[in-house]
Design a protein that fits this description.
The protein has 322 residues and is of the alpha/beta class. It is built from 12 helices and 8 strands. Helix 1 packs across helix 3, helix 5 runs parallel beside helix 6 and helix 11 crosses helix 12.
Length: 322
């Protein structure tokens, strides 16, 4: 696998949406994720999240369409990325040596229980979805919602509709009750794109032991994240090596084949020392290989994500919108 990487989450779309003067060409200091850093870190596939902050004015569905336009016009086109919507696209990324881009949704406010909107987003390339961010919406409660409720009836129906279309379900940001509702409702493997281990760092955005075990049983992925506050309590002086405890915890639960990474680059304003941007993945691979061996490092950085996506994305892009 020669050092390639798949990263399960970043928020570059939001930064470019909020700063229309900015470019994805590597100039300026706004972005963590840039084309030169993707090349430097040997990123084979980067997930790009459609996240719209709750305070954003305007119609949520129109806003998410604008965010998709930013994805294609300011990220995909100028950087020459290959949008991945199917297993065939994954194979093309490998054959062509390009960097792939996977479009995901972080919070389903724009859907509003209207499945025609979900179908439109699917036709525009959406292939993974989180039902909510940290708070409550029509579909579910988030990890920071005080009442801690689960999925609504409509939220459960969204799981069913997503699975019909081949949209993967991402449980990061869900409340604990909502997580278990997903586990009960989902018929296909689900995953956590960017969450760490609660027992090692008790932040409400992290996963508890039984949640990690449930993802493993379901055949999903635990994408360990680079958020300092999710890595060590308080997040101060957190470094790349602090992820080792989280890696070992998941592996000891039998999760070595289900362990990967979702950086949350461009969604954070502090960084793990040694993992400040995608270009640092090359150094991080060296740390992992020295401690756990080459095979494990390649599996966690690339192979596990690759297998999960190749098993769970549609074989072909039914609508061929790209």
């Amino acid at each position: 696998m020669d050092g390639r990487v798949i990263d399960g989450h970043c928020d570059a779309i939001l930064k470019l949406l909020e700063h229309p003067e900015a470019a994805f060409d590597g100039s300026g200091s706004l972005l963590d994720v840039k084309p030169d850093r993707l090349r430097e870190g040997r990123i084979a596939l980067q997930s790009f999240a459609l996240f719209l902050p709750p305070e954003m004015a305007g119609d949520p569905f129109l806003n998410v369409l604008k965010a998709i336009d930013v994805f294609y016009e300011k990220i995909v086109k100028p950087a020459g990325l290959k949008v991945v919507t199917s297993r065939r696209d994954l194979d093309l990324v490998d054959k062509q040596g390009k960097t792939g881009a996977l479009l995901t949704l972080e919070g389903a406010e724009a859907i509003g229980g209207d499945w025609s909107r979900l179908r439109i987003l699917h036709r525009l390339g959406l292939r993974a979805a989180q039902l909510t961010w940290n708070h409550a919406n029509w579909a579910a409660d988030g990890a920071l919602e005080p009442r801690g409720a689960g999925l609504t009836k409509a939220g459960k129906n969204m799981i069913v509709e997503c699975e019909k279309m081949g949209i993967l379900i991402d449980v990061s940001h869900l409340s604990e009750k909502a997580f278990w509702d997903v586990a009960e409702t989902a018929k296909r493997p689900f995953y956590a794109s960017h969450s760490n281990v609660y027992e090692l760092c008790p932040h409400p955005r992290n996963l508890k032991r039984d949640q990690i075990e449930a993802i493993i049983r379901a055949g999903g992925i635990i994408g360990l994240t680079f958020v300092p506050d999710f890595t060590v309590p308080g997040g101060e002086k957190a470094a790349a090596e602090d992820l080792f405890r989280h890696i070992e915890y998941v592996a000891e639960l039998g999760g070595a084949r289900h362990l990967a990474f979702g950086s949350d680059f461009d969604g954070i304003d502090s960084w793990l020392a040694g993992l400040e941007h995608p270009g640092k993945y090359a150094d991080f691979r060296g740390l992992l290989a020295r401690r756990y061996g080459e095979e494990a490092a390649d599996a966690w950085l690339y192979g596990n994500w690759r297998r999960f996506l190749s098993e769970n994305l549609p074989a072909e892009n039914e609508y061929n919108p790209i």
